[in-house]
Amino acid sequence: MIRIGRYIRINPLTPLLFVICFFTNQHKILLISYSAILLHELAHLAAARLMGLRADNITFHPFGVNLQLKNKIIFSVSDEIILYAAGPAVNILLALSINALGLSSDAARYFYACNMALFFMNILPIAPLDGGIILKKIIAKSFGLRAAHNCLTAASVLTAAALIVTEAMAAYRVGVNYSVLLMIAFLVGNIFTQREKYDIDFVNELMFNGRKRRPNARVFVMYDDGDYRKIAKNFRRGNYGIVVRVNSDGEIVETLTEQQVIDRLIG
Fold first, then answer.
1. CB neighbour class for 30 (10 Å; exposed up to 12, middle 13-18, buried from 19)
2. Per-residue pLDDT averaged across 156-161, rounded?
3. What structural domains and CATH numbers belong to the chain?
């Protein structure tokens, strides 16, 4: 990866794609597509910052932009829904704005199409798309993580099957759409590659579910680069503190008692 500053990373193939598109006179279309995708990710970033989350990097891949957050643990389901809905919401607002303003240039029409495509694709109930993640959060809140995973897998299978049938009918009439085929392959592949171990949802369910709290115990989550002194300041008499240290992917690194935290501070 090519690093520019602290947060920006560029896949080496991305500049090559821009060069190829420039010489094939497709650079305007590529820039418009990238603009819609970048605005989608910036909307996620703005929502994350409002919730106190930090960005780790923004990576420019040949066919998309990806935002990676440094800390992903959120204590409120409503905040999680806002975080993941921000991207599609901006895309549909931009598309509606194009219509409202009556813009009809080729660039405006293509920008409208890109935003509509991003909106409809991202609200599909399939992880890791925004719609799938929102569905998983809502179900997990009421029925637990395993039920959410099973429901999301079923929704993914049904959605992928519907797309396969639709594409087969379209291919019979007008020919094969390879973009749709690639999207179907991505969706089907993701059904079998969803992570099951100590991910962000597991940490949220384990540590912050109200039914699991005890009045005499407090659980603190600390990231790898966290400060033990800040954590210790939150210890209170009459409550037993447990510190769970996690990495940026939400994987549990270790669990510490109050005494172990104090030993590290004075050791």
1. middle
2. 81
3. 1-123 (no CATH), 124-198 (no CATH), 213-266 (3.10.580.10)
